Amino acid sequence: MIGAIVYELRALNTDSLPLYHGQQMHGLCFKILKDYSPVMADYIHNQMLIKPFTAAELAFYGKISATNNRLYIKEGQLLRWRVTALSDEVLQAFLSLQPGYKIYLGNLQLDVERVYADPELCEYSGVVEPTEMMAECFSCALPSSITMDFQSATTFRSGKNDFPWPLPEYVFGSLADKWAALRMPGDISRTLVAEAASAILPLSWQGKSCWIKLSPQRSARCFVGRFTYGVNNLSDTYKGILAVLAAYAEFAGVGRWTSHGLGQVRIIDKN
């Protein structure tokens, strides 16, 4: 099983976080994993190049004060945090958090008030069996286009440089890499996806580039925006594979540093 969990949090004190605080959320994920299974957390941290989870940055209700690259959070403020698990054991670790669990981000203290894993209760949450996701994608009407909304800063790697542009071979190639590395069902390889990507046409886009600082030692050139890929020139088999990867993108994220808040994607129109 894979899944997306949304935690509803309430601030217990007033404090601030870096404007880009994905590194803090990444560390929090590892604390949750370590509390659940130290052996699993150690293996993921030290042995797995592609991490079997993603972590979004905090989402806020209403306006939030931001000054000097800091977000100022007031006591009593309600927030949401979305994580995804790309393996069953990680999913169980994230689901082990219950209301009343205390989260500490530096001096900021947060209380877990609700845990959502049902799309009928909270959008973009839920659990699914990958084989069922594949079956559904191939049984539905195959898409003529796929629209991706890159909701958080996203980037890829080209040689030693950041590549802040969603070329089809980079977008779907990164998803194929994750699919294979995390042992999802079916044979979806980067080579196979590269063949399909060569026939994908960009239909429309709106977006912008951005520069983010993940930590004092780590920064990246990225982009955000909405891009539509035309897939009418592909065979039905390739259309089905891309539909599967598009569905997977909402769980796996796209590009680099998805466990640090980057590459958060929503699929707007699968048809």
UniProtKB/TrEMBL annotation:
Residues 20-120 form the CRISPR-associated protein Cas6-like N-terminal domain. Residues 148-265 form the CRISPR-associated protein Cas6 C-terminal domain. Gene3D superfamilies: 3.30.70.1890, 3.30.70.1900. Signal peptide: none annotated. This is CRISPR-associated endoribonuclease Cas6. It comes from Selenomonas ruminantium.
